[in-house]
Amino acid sequence: MNPTIRAFIAVELSDRLKESVARIQSELKKSSGDVKWVPPDICHITLKFLGEVQKDQLDAIRAIMDQCAGPMEPFWLRINSVGAFPDIDKPNIIWLGLNEDHPVLTKLASEIDEHVSTLGFFKENRPFTPHITIGRTRPGSHDHLSRALQSLVPPDDILEVRALTFFQSRLTHEGSTYYPLFSSPFK
């Protein structure tokens, strides 16, 4: 039997953006919402969640990442919104995001999705929504948290995207932890 790892392909955040995440989380913690906060140092923008990956697929995934990243020039994203899924009135997942469309990032996510589907990974059937998950609510009242989200001044940060990173995700009793295993830099 071939061992597996739980994994995804993502864009790592800059140290400056991680500091913004910590600041925003600090503001939202004042709402007393029942939230499991994502440690800022492991926040990221997921481009493709793979799920269980056979270890003998790693070379093929790295080749796909290199193929997608190789011709890319570094580009910039403006992180300037805060929100929640399914919506801000009933927040289950709290996120930071982009107010405007980013065709380069969307195209990159689509290319990765298309290529890894040839290895047997599911193909996305919903639109790509780039975001940085910063917290997950626990069951209970969301009123205070919803009001805090609505009154929060969104960040206005720039992120230079210069590589794709393959992360292993390990589930623990304290939550998920992520470990970068390899990266594919842009040209």
Label the overall shape.
globular
CATH domain class? Alpha Beta
Terminal-residue CA separation: 37 Å
Unreliable spans are: none
Question: How would you briefly describe this protein structure?
Answer:
The chain has 187 residues and is of the alpha+beta class. It has one domain: Alpha-Beta Complex (Cyclic Phosphodiesterase, Chain: A), CATH 3.90.1140.10. It contains four helices and ten strands, in the order βαββαβββαβαβββ.
Explain how this protein is built:
A four-stranded antiparallel β-sheet has the order 3-1-9-10. Strands 2-7-6-5 form a four-stranded antiparallel β-sheet, with helices on one face. It has a two-stranded antiparallel sheet with strand order 4-8. α2 runs antiparallel to α3 (103-117). The protein is of the alpha+beta class and 187 residues long. The chain contains four helices and ten strands. It has a single domain (4-185), classed as Cyclic phosphodiesterase (Cyclic Phosphodiesterase, Chain: A, Alpha-Beta Complex), CATH 3.90.1140.10. The chain is 27% helix and 41% strand. β9 (163-172) and β10 (175-185) form a beta hairpin. The longest helix is centred in the first third of the chain and has 15 residues, at 15-29.
What's the SSE blueprint?
Blueprint: E1 4-12, H1 15-29, E2 35-37, E3 44-54, H2 58-69, E4 75-79, E5 81-87, E6 90-97, H3 103-117, E7 131-137, H4 143-151, E8 157-161, E9 163-172, E10 175-185
Antiparallel strand pairs: 1-3, 1-9, 2-7, 4-8, 5-6, 6-7, 9-10
Helix pairs in contact: 2-3
